[in-house]
Amino acid sequence: MILDTRYLLLRLGQAVLVLLLAFTAAFILLSLIPGDGVTARFADPALGLSPDQIAEIREATGADDSWFGRYLTSLTGFLTGDFGYSVQTGAAVSTIIAAALPSTAVLAASGFVTALVLAVIIAVFATFGPATGPAARVRRVLDSVPSLFISIPVFWLGILLIQVFSFQLGFVSVVDPGPAEALVLPTLTVAVPLSAPIAQVLIRSITEVQASGFVKVTTAKGASELWILVHTVARNAVLPGLTIIGVVFGELVAGAVVTETVFGRNGIGLITAQAVTHRDNPILLAVVVIATFGYVIINLVVDLLYPVIDVRLRTKRSSASARSGLRSHDEPTRRALTASAASVGVDLDWNDDPAAPAGEAHAGEAPAGETKEKNS
After folding, report:
1. Distance between CA atoms of residues 325 and 267, nearest Å
2. Selected residue with higher pLDDT from 242 and 350
3. N or C: which end of the chain has fewer CB within 10 A?
């Protein structure tokens, strides 16, 4: 069994706790801001509403209820899928979010995929290739590219892309563009800064794996650089990359919000900017919870992928089964396997002691990926 059920339940419980804490923190912070959306919306003298009418509106919307009462009402509504009503428009928040979410989801997905492609390309070309000559200089330049990308403000990058690729070169139109054309520049605006931390982690991880002993053994056997990259380095360098992918999801959400504001896209970013202007707390609270939910889901999927990719992180049951399978070999088979492993410098420790902790690394024993590559 690759995934422990108790571990899955623990991670789900942590995800629920993070959502609850995010909702509570957002509600408290929004409540502490002076004033409220009802007053900002209906106390305008141009509307001609009397104080009694404004008081009736505040009572109907629950604006004068106690803090704890409003918290319980909002929390109960969120648990049932009722996000309340917009103070500015009076429409249901769930309807507003449902209309804006597809556009943001498409932008986030396209930006995320593009960022991954950029990060992988930068990391591969910055770590593989000749160590001398023009190619080496290109590698050094690519190695510094992530530092440049990560320092570029999203709003400035969006304006720069519009100026260069739309106004100067005319490659992409930002005035009444088609659906696909309207997605090009916003996708690049989201992807460029997002690719920087992923590329940095991949470069560092690939460099460390390249210096490992099992890679040197595989190289000494005559394996090509491409074969080593695909079959050896990529598998062992992907875990740190997965970790940073989960971490930068928050940056993806923030980048999408700013990008939609710059390009005037009708999405979560635009309604968030409008809600901040009009103190529309129900919409802001819903956006925070939805963004937190996406962040939690991404990180939960990343955590659950760890044991699938790396056998060393699998459950104790799997480790115990593997040790039991090794003990089932007869003595001649053991000697043959030990001799084969020793020929590539690996000392197998059969560890017949059933009380030994699962997954414990013994002296002289290579990691799972290392043993496999040395025997390949």
Report:
1. 55
2. 242
3. N
